[in-house]
Write a structure and sequence with these properties.
Helix content: 10-25%
Mean pLDDT: 81
Radius of gyration: 22 Å
Strand content: over 45%
Largest sheet: 5 strands, antiparallel
Order of helices and strands: HEEEEEEHEEE
Number of helices: 2
Shape: elongated
Structural class: alpha+beta
Number of domains: 1
Low-confidence stretches: 15-22
CATH topology: Immunoglobulin-like
CATH architecture: Sandwich
CATH class: Mainly Beta
Length: 158
């Protein structure tokens, strides 16, 4: 009998506390390609730094613990990236996450050929953002966009 009363009291306390905590609407972060920097060639591979802009539309900070993605440029598979760098995305804010990737020189030459006489770079990026957040966890993302080649931001050598 005492066990039943203790359990019932605990359950009522938990419900009362849950009622005091306001429900937060959680929105997935948005990931966009911001820049691609050429680093160094190593044999038949090219090292690049891909800079991803991660936006947090929520009213609370989000701790990003990593991400993985596949990148397409001008409708061609270009490369994949992994990062285990922890970045705290501020509430209603953004952070740039740099990720080093390696691509074949063949892919680089395909892009050089595809970029001739173009003023923009079309991209598609899809992957998963890994978050240390109870309500979000791992969040898939997919984004398509275009970057101007005239402002000198895309494919900037370091």
């Amino acid at each position: 009998m005492v066990r039943g009363i203790t359990f019932l009291a605990g359950a009522m306390l938990a419900l009362a506390l849950a009622g005091c905590v306001p429900a937060q609407k959680v929105v997935s972060p948005r990931v966009e390609l911001q820049n691609v920097k050429i680093l160094q060639a190593e044999g038949l591979m090219q090292r690049l730094e891909v800079q991803l802009l991660v936006s947090n539309p929520n009213d609370f900070d989000i701790p990003l613990t990593g991400l993985d993605f596949a990148l397409r440029l001008n409708d061609l598979d270009f490369g994949t990236g992994l990062s285990n760098t922890r970045v705290d995305i501020p509430r209603l804010g953004q952070a740039v996450v740099p990720v080093e990737i390696r691509v074949s020189l063949f892919s680089v030459f395909q892009q050089i050929q595809a970029l001739q006489n173009r003023t923009s770079l079309d991209y598609g990026i899809a992957g998963t953002v890994h978050l240390d957040h109870l309500l979000l966890g791992n969040v898939p993302f997919e984004r398509k966009g275009s970057m101007s080649l005239q402002d000198g931001k895309a494919f900037v050598p370091l």
